[in-house]
Amino acid sequence: MNGRMIGVIGGTGRVGRECLRYLHENTAFGLLIGGRKPPREALPGSFLSVDVFDEASLARFCGQCSLVINCAGPASAVRERVAAAALAGGCHYVDPGGYTPLFPILSSRRPEIRAKRLTFLLTLGILPGLSELFPVYVARTCFDQVEGFEYACVGRDRWTFPSAWDIAWGVGNIGNGEAPVYYEQGVRRQAGLLASGRRMDLPAPVGRHTVFRLMRDDLQLFVEESGISEAHVYGNNWGCWVTLATVLVRLAGWYGTERRLAHDQSARLIMRAAELDMRGRKPGFMLHLRMRGMLRGQPRSVVRTLFLEDTYRATGLCAAIGARLAAEGMEPDVFRAAQMPDPQAFMRHFLAQGYVITGGALPGEWGRL
Q1: What is the dihedral of CA 314, 223, 359, 307, to 10 degrees?
Q2: CA 248, 79, 126, 193 torsion: positive or negative?
Q3: pLDDT band (50, 70, 90) for residue 272
Q4: pTM over 0.85
């Protein structure tokens, strides 16, 4: 990698601060903090003002870096602006945001990215990101061949305005990279989103909760390339109020454009709903997976659960670890989490931050979660 400077745009926000702390403690790279205003607290690195909606400002920032992490939001409003500036400046790029159309936009520029020997890691937060990487990691470390899995992702927090904006955009744009898809007997099927809800018993502290089918296209690609015959993926907010708010946003069409997102205040509705869900409760995010397949010629079934108590810390760690791997040497290309070349290396660094995967082998065949 040319140079030793990693720039974190949005570095004064909650996710950006976690990126900076991890990189300061675990790498020797210089750090450049990008934001509208200098940080109020002491953070590792020097500060440079940057406006993600100003091309000259972005070019000035990226010109001082060899890798850029974009923690600015809302991701669906920032879109490809920072990524384009990083590419023009010859920088590696990591994005924890969930703006799904960024991948096809940058995939069309793959020849340029590869020619410049750059690595672009997209949607590398916890959802999307770790949520797609986790079943890939379990498949590679526990099986020679996976036959099927059932998987649930559930979380809650006091969502910031950019996070709530992206949630509103995402629930309204289901079908653009994600859908209520599942696989049975090797056949891809699709259900109606609202009709796909079911009550599911999950480990403590979540317990019994309603979830809906929703599988991102990068996880669909993993299923198809791996020859997995059965795959069922579910998700939802951990609490009823945000669930109701997102259903209202979708049914009312408050997500159609950035203008409607702002004027109909769908993001603020989701923020208020999140406060109700969080009243007297703690944040958290759970990945719960049951998987079956073959290992050394013998059938095997396992259950694996990962629980994250601080969603913003985990998101920042995902982006920072991705940046570390890219900076230390990764093949030049555009990747999303499920297609990262070495998910084992990523999870090794992530688990070293105090996280524990629980579970074990299951006797016989697994049933529904």
Answers
A1: 20
A2: positive
A3: very high
A4: yes
